[in-house]
Every structure is written in C-alpha cells, then in structure tokens.
Amino acid sequence: xxxxxxxxxxxxYLDLRCRVVYIEKVLVxxxxxxxxxxxxxxxxxxxxxRASKLAKRVIACLDVRTNDKGDLVVTKGDQYDVxxxxxxxxxxxxxxxxxxxxxxxxxxxxxxxxxxxxxFRDFPLGDLPMLEVLRYTSENVFVPLTVGGGIRDFTDANGxxxxxxxxxxxxxxxxxxxxxxTGVKTGKTSLEQISRVYGNQxxxxxxxxxxxxxxxxxxxxxxxxxxxxxxxxxxEYAWYQCTxxxxxxxxxxxxxxxxxxxxxxGAGEILLNCIDCDGQGKGFDIDLIKLISxxxxxxxxxxxxAGVVEHFSEVFxxxxxxxxxxxxxxxxxxxxx
Length: 337
Ligand code: 1PR
Hints:
By secondary structure, the chain is of the alpha/beta class. It has helices at 28-34, 97-107, 128-140, 170-182, 190-198, 255-265, 286-295, 309-318, 328-331, and strands spanning 2-6, 9-14, 20-22, 37-40, 57-66, 72-75, 111-116, 145-148, 165-168, 203-207, 209-214, 224-226, 237-244, 249-254, 269-272, 300-303, 323-326. 26% of the residues lie in helices and 26% in strands. The strands form 3 sheets. An 8-stranded parallel β-barrel has the order 5-7-8-9-10-15-16-17, surrounded by 7 helices. This is Imidazole glycerol phosphate synthase hisHF, chloroplastic. InterPro entries: Aldolase_TIM, His_biosynth, HisF, IGPS_HisA/HisF, RibuloseP-bd_barrel.
C-alpha cells in the first residue's frame, strides 16, 4: 500500500487498483498544486469498515432560496434558521449559486449539491430560475450535480434538467412511513418512480433529523444510541427524529427506520444531515453517522457541522460514511486551496 504524505501527514493512499483514496480530500488542490507530498508504505492502515472502499468524496452544498427581494441566492442557516439576527431579519445572502458552484468545482469539490430549501413551497424542477441555475452550472462544472427540495412527484417534463441526481426529503419520509405501516411497495411514490426510471444511483434521500435525548433505549419505539456526550439532564441515550418541511415538523419515525425503509424502496444514497449540528462548526454527529452508515449498504453522505479540516478525517476514520458534505466552512472560505 502506498501512502501519500503532505507536510508529514498522511492525506491519501493508493488502493489495490492504484486509485487515490483521500483521507483529507479538502487538501486535494494543495496536494496537486504544492507538490509537497511524498510516498511511504509503512504507516498504519485506516480502520476496516463496511463502507465502500471507493475514494471518499467531499461535497460542497449550496442551500438556495429566494430572498425577500425575489433573487435566488445561496444562503446558510444555523440549525436551519437562515435569517439574520438584525431588525430586518432578512435571509442571509452568501452569493450567487452559479458562481459559487463554479468556484467550488475549481477548488476541487467532488460533487456539488443544490438544495432548494423552500422547495416544500415550490417544485424546483418547475421553477425557472432554479432550472437556469442548473443549466448554467452544468456548462462549467464537470462533477456530479445533485438538486433537491420540493420533489414530490415523478415528472418527465424537465427530466433531471442537467442534474445527475435528485434529492428527496419530505416526500421520502411520508413514503417510508407508509411502507413501514403497510409493508407494501406501491411503486407510486416519487422515490420509487424516479429510481425505476433513472436508476437507484440517481436518487438521494436527504434526512433532516433532530436529536431527542432519552434515559434508556426502551423509552421509545425507535432505534436509539448511547451518545458520546450526555444530554442536558445527563441523558445517556438519544434517538434521531426525522422532520419534514425544512425541520419545521417532527414525524413519528427515526433516522434509522427511515434509512432502512428508503433503501428498500430504491434510494441509491443517503444524505444525512443533523439539525442540531447544522452551521455550528463543531464537527459531524459521529453517533448518528455511525448508526446509519452501519445499518445500510448504500453510500451515506455525512453532513452538518464541519468546522475544521480535521472534522473530515474524523468522520471518515470513525464511521462508514462514503462522503462528507459541508456548506458553511466553504462559504466562509475557512479551507484554502
Ligand atoms: O423536503 O424534499 O422539500 O427537501 C428540502 C431540502 O432542503 C432537504 O434536503 C433539506 O435538508 C433542505 N433544507 C430545508 N430547510 C433547510 C434549512 O437550512 N432551513 N437545508 C435545508 C438543509 C442542510 C445541509 C447543510 C449542512 C451542512 N441544509 O444541506 O448544507 O447541514 O451545513 P454546515 O456544513 O454549514 O454545517 P424537501
């Protein structure tokens, strides 16, 4: 096994097929531009897990919505609250979607995701500005593009509109609840229909869970985990309640149950957010990501909470996540190429 070192630190290794597997992919442009890396063969291996042995991906996410002036802007929330703490309470505006996507592509992002975060109000593939964003982005960005927010139906009118993958949030929660209740795959949900037409690899289910602390795992009917950091009243366990409509409504289903159900319904990948960690910069929720990435066979994208480069290596070392997604750390330009 060949290891690539940058400034004395292991940042990547070559797998058996000589593909580069990044441990700290955010350093990729530094690796290629600085030529500061060297190889060695005698460093300890990263832990063996269930996850895909393909290269770990780093995904830049752009939460997009219309601001109060009617412009489509990239925004970013703290625990899903995207409004500034000012008198006007305006939507935080971090830039233009096409420009930022192009920049992240140049910086070395493996994929770019656009989430229309008010999509529960408007259908993004029927939304002209959003279609324009996708079209212009796909002219200059040559990594997989995902679009999500408001997907409720299968529609052929616009196909995938230049997107490689479609992300489904709220509608997948309703579909999973119904499937768990009846045990029947109707074939009629957006998740099932899109994966049948475009293939499982084109369907990402985005989960927006919130941590709920409990004293014992039997306190709820949902899968709970022992948490690394106890809750405010010393609770040692938590379950992760799924939400819909951008975190506004909690549902009677846990992230574990949802992940297992949507895998059976045809999801090809899971985007695992965590409302508690979103925008906090304190690291990913390792307990949650381990729970889900050990439970399913499809790739899991760890999301929410990245604040420093080490958070990426931590999530890849401690869980079976196949990719890590971040937003704020890139928007604030805290990782430089
Ligand atoms: O339910 O199908 O309409 O889809 C709505 C989509 O919009 C979902 O994917 C949901 O996650 C997303 N969404 C809804 N409201 C918000 C919000 O922020 N108010 N954004 C929202 C979700 C979470 C991540 C974020 C990471 C990383 N954003 O995408 O980018 O937490 O952030 P960080 O690195 O700064 O911590 P539907």
